[in-house]
Amino acid sequence: MSQESEQKQQNSEIEFDDTDLVPRRRFLTLAGTGLLTIGFGSLAEGLVGGLSEPLNQQVESLIFKPQQPVPEFSISAIEPEKLIINSFRGTPAINPLAYRLTIDGEVNNPLSLSIEDLQKFPFTSMVIRHVCVEGWAAIVQWGGLRLRDLIAIVQPSSQVKYVYFYSADGYYESWDIDTVMHPQTLMAYQRNGQALTSEYGAPLRLASPVKLGYKLSKWVTRIQLTSVLGKKRGYWEDLGYEWYAGL
What we know:
CATH architecture: Alpha-Beta Complex
Distance between the termini: 41 Å
Shape: globular
Order of helices and strands: HEHHEEEHEEHEEHEEEE
Strand order of the largest sheet: 4-3-12-7-8
CATH topology: Sulfite Oxidase, Chain A, domain 2
């Protein structure tokens, strides 16, 4: 079956459950450096006619050092009740037997992988702090595979600078390639030592200690590598959130 046919079959089985929907408060402001760089980026983009790359990326990457390992916590520090369920359309019901993760774009070896395929990659577990732009945080243990292991197999073009993530509920995000390749950026299928459940992003979600929570897409079905950042940069970013969103 082709990737396109598989994707259509998967999408046809998606349903939505709004019972656990937590409305996300609209973005008003980010304090400190983030606010300043957003303002500078917006002004400069207007002056030059709109660039494809956010101008604040260079400034923030110097501050946040996306390749620097982040200290982790002990298992005893996990806060299982503090991880709030956030979604913009509710939880999509995904048939795990039909699920496929497509990885394509500017790559030499596009892939379509099942959960069983993904679980054959070397397993990585980390206990990190998940930080939400709304002002709350939770220490969580995530388990899965390093995203950079997937990227290596698809053999991206040397021109690739960005990675898009598309989710079963219609959510979309984009990251810089450097942060994607961070050793603590995972495609997770476990939470706190147990199989990931649907409300927290099963069968597969992003997890990383170097990005704010709205960058950590749940229910990921497609990863697209590209050399150009399009006009659509992320669901919340297109409504005013900062694009880089590093920690």
